[in-house]
């Protein structure tokens, strides 16, 4: 088996793209989108009809973007066996009630398209307010993907809240250390992004948390391979193709021993904020990630505005 086939035996493979052709060819179980990926999808010929119709529509721009996100997600959902992740507007990252309302709207649009809620994950930024929104949505039967995870404390707060899935951003963590420190990464095990996901995965398994760990934001196949065995990994088409072309052995790196220990007390709001504030990588990358998604959300609005 090639490395992609081997990876499928130990990890749920997720495609990090809005490219329907690539998803159909690479056959992931799940897929994830975000404003940046939707903006790329809007330039693809396969979505030209949707873009044209939305440009001509008299609907509010925000409604057009929501409809496009769900249109892309619905078409992807029909060619995968699992779930599609669709992101809430990043400008709502610090507004719990608005995030809940937007999530329910997206789920309603999916229902109108014939896609049930159990085939969708709503992506929310893992701010304190976003985590509280995800907690409420989970209680209403809407599963969430807490994204932009850069800290152990963000991950733990999501597990405490019963969030279905988290997405720790491997590559962006590594980017920060590469740009701001003298850290030399000689092998994937030295990679701080890989180390972050490994710590979270081991902690969740050791304490019996049900929250799914899905590594995201990979820069190379070495990072992916170092996390083989993680619950899920969301991987770009180019890296999936590289794994598919590699016939060498892929050892499993992460596994659940089955041993369990009592869970620690939940993090308080103040402890969560203080821990994230004390780590410049976390505070900078979380803010930067939200800003980047906002930029692409606004570009998509201008494109679809007509």
Protein architecture, described:
With 306 residues, this protein is α/β, with parallel strands linked by helices. The chain has one domain (3-301): Aldolase class I (TIM Barrel, Alpha-Beta Barrel). It has 14 helices and eight strands. It has helices spanning 3-8, 20-26, 35-41, 48-56, 61-77, 96-112, 128-139, 152-160, 170-180, 192-206, 221-226, 237-244, 269-278, 280-304, and strands spanning 12-16, 30-32, 84-87, 120-125, 144-149, 165-168, 212-215, 232-235. The chain has an eight-stranded parallel beta barrel, surrounded by seven helices. Helix 3 (35-41) packs parallel to helix 14, helix 4 runs antiparallel to helix 5 and helix 8 packs parallel to helix 10. The longest helix has 25 residues, at 280-304. The N and C termini lie far apart (48 Å). 47% of the residues are buried. The mean pLDDT is 97.
């Amino acid at each position: 088996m090639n490395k992609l086939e081997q990876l499928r035996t130990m990890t749920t493979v997720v495609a990090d793209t809005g490219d329907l052709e690539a998803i159909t060819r690479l056959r992931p179980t799940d897929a994830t989108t975000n404003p940046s990926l939707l903006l790329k999808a809007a330039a693809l010929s396969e979505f030209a009809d949707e873009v044209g119709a939305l440009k001509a529509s008299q609907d509010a721009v925000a409604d057009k973007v929501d409809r496009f996100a769900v249109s892309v997600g619905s078409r992807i959902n029909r060619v995968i066996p699992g779930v599609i992740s669709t992101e809430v507007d990043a400008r709502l990252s610090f507004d719990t009630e608005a995030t809940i309302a937007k999530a329910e709207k997206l789920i309603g649009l999916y229902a109108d398209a014939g896609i049930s809620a159990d085939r969708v994950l709503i992506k929310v930024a893992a701010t304190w307010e976003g985590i509280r929104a995800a907690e409420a949505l989970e209680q209403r039967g809407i599963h969430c993907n807490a994204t932009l995870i850069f800290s152990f404390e963000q991950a733990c707060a999501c597990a405490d809240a019963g969030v279905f899935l988290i997405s720790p951003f491997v590559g962006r963590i590594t980017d920060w250390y590469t740009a701001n420190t003298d850290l030399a990464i000689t092998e994937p095990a030295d990679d701080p992004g890989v180390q972050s996901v490994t710590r979270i995965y081991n902690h969740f398994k050791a304490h019996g948390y049900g929250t799914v760990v899905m590594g995201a934001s990979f820069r190379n196949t070495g990072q992916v391979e170092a996390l083989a065995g993680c619950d899920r990994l969301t991987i770009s088409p180019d890296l999936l193709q590289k794994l598919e072309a590699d016939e060498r052995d892929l050892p499993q790196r992460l596994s659940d021993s089955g041993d369990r220990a009592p869970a620690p007390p939940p993090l308080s709001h103040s402890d969560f904020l203080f821990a994230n504030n004390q780590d410049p990588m976390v505070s900078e990358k979380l803010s930067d990630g939200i800003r980047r998604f906002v930029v692409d959300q606004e570009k998509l609005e201008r494109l679809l505005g007509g």
